[in-house]
Amino acid sequence: MIIEVFGKDYELMMTVGASEEIAKLCPDGKLENIYRVFDGKSDAEALDFSVKFICILSNAADENAEFAGKEVDHPKLTEKMLKAMPADQFALMQGIAMGAIKESSETSVEVEPSKKKDVTGKA
User: Fold this and answer.
1) Angle, alpha carbons 50-53-54 (nearest 5°)
2) How far is residue 8's CA from residue 5's CA, in Å, rounded to a whole number?
3) pTM above threshold 0.70
């Protein structure tokens, strides 16, 4: 997932490290509670979470790219940068960021059937 901030493209990626950081921000420290993160929160608390959340996903993508040997050609995304954005543009980013979480949870792995031998030694 890609977002644009002040003319630069930033990828958002849910990595193991991002999952750990985001889980710490969720109720009971559980990532599964991310959809409850705004329950009973003030607007200020909800915005604070969203800003941190987007920065975590962006910085995780940058770190992943660097380890993969790719060049990152933009400055690190900061909370200050996001807070300087127009509110309507930031609201769109929130939806994109939540889509990154959904996309990562829908990842599937194909597994071939096991070729274990039965008790008689036959395959």
Assistant:
1) 90
2) 5
3) yes
- Over residues 11-55, the pLDDT tens digits come to 999 999 999 999 999 999 999 998 888 899 999 999 999 999 999
DSSP state of 118: -
Q: Where are the beta strands (DSSP E) in the chain?
A: 2-5, 8-11
d(CA 3, CA 63): 16
What phi-psi label fits residue 69: left (phi over 0), alpha (psi between -120 and 50 degrees) or beta? left
Q: Which helix (H) or strand (E) holds 89?
A: helix 87-105
Q: Hey, what amino acid is at 54?
A: I
Beta bridge partners of 120: none
Q: Does residue 111 surpass a pLDDT of 80? A: no
